[in-house]
Amino acid sequence: MKNFVYLLFLLIISTSCNHLNPEDSVLKELYFLQPPNGAVAEIDFSLSDSLLIKNIEYQTGINLCSNSLFSGKINVNGSNVIFPAFADKDCGFPVLYSNIIPIIINKKNQVLINETIGNENIKELIVKETELKKSWNKRKEIIYLVQWDTELESKIIKNSFLEILMGILEYYKIQSQKIFQKDIVNLNEQELIELKREYKGIIGFQDYTPPPPPPPSLENEKNGLETIPQGTFKYELYFAEFGGRMNNATCDVEINGNNIKVLQDGTTNFMGGDVIFEGLVIKHKSGVWILAHYKSDKDAEEVGGCTEIPVIYFENKLIEWC
Fold first, then answer.
1. pLDDT tens digit sequence for 145-189
2. Secondary structure letter of residue 272 according to DSSP
3. With contact defined as beta carbons under 8 Å apart, do 69 and 111 qualify?
4. Bridge partners for 279 per DSSP
5. What strands, in cross-sheet order, belong to the sheet with 141-148?
6. What is the pTM of this model?
7. Closest of 130, 149, 137 to residue 202, by C-alpha
C-alpha cells in the first residue's frame, strides 16, 4: 500500500498549476482534514443558514435529515481544501448537541468564537475552546458550528473560514505531539487512525431561522408607551444557536427599575455560578428590549441571536439566549 500520507495529499490538493505559491504552502498541511470518503459539497459563502443547507443538499443529493454528515469543500488559490462537515437541518424535531462550539463571522468581519472575538488569535482561541469543550463533556468529536453574515464579501468570509480550519488543524498538531511526540506529517497510517479516534473536528452548518418577535400589546399601541415590568418572574430561555430544535429552559428574573438579574433555576448548568446575567434592561434603537452592560449598547449594530446582547420579550416572558 502506498504511503497513507501521500495518498491523502493527492486527494486533497488538486490544482491546475505546477506548484503552489509560497504563501499557499500552508495548504499542504490541510490534506490531513480530508475525510476518506463521502458526498462532497462546495461551500457557497454568498449563502447562509437555510439557503446554504438547501444548496448543500442539492449538491450532495442526500437527505440531510437521514444523513447529516458530508464532506465540505472550498477552493483556495486553485487548491481544493476538503474537510468533514455536518448539516444541522431543521427536520421538524428538536435535537440537542452538547459538543458544539458556536462561531459567528459578523458583518464587521469579527470572528466570535463562543462569543469571544478572536480575529487576532483565531487559531489559539479555537485550541483553547476545544480543550475546554473536550474536558467538559468528554466527547471525541467537536462540531464547530459556523455562521456568517452574507453582507460581507464571499472572499472575506472564506479567508476567515480558512483561519478556522487552521485552528482545527493546530489542535490536531498539538495532540499529535502530545500522544506520539511527532508532527502529523510524520505519523504512519496506524498513528493517523489513532489520532482521529482521540479527536475529530467537524465543521457544522445550521438551518437557522430566528424566532419572530412577539406582537405589541394593544394597550401599548394605543398609549404609545412601553414599561419595564418590576418584580420577580419565571422566564424561558430560547437557545438561538439551535433554531428552536432544543427545548427552552427556564430561569428566574429579577427586575428593579432598569436593573436586571437572570439566575439559573436548575434547568440549566451554565458555568460561573447561579447568576448568568446582571446588568441593564434598555430599549435598542431597533425598538426591541435588550439585556445590556452599557447604555451605549442601545446603538449596537447587532443584537439577539448569538451576539453578545440578548433580547428580552416581556409579554412572552422569553429571553433569546446563546
1. 999 988 899 999 999 999 999 999 999 999 999 999 998 888 898
2. T
3. no
4. 260
5. 40-42, 69-76, 79-88, 200-206, 141-148, 100-105, 111-113, 116-117
6. 0.61
7. 130
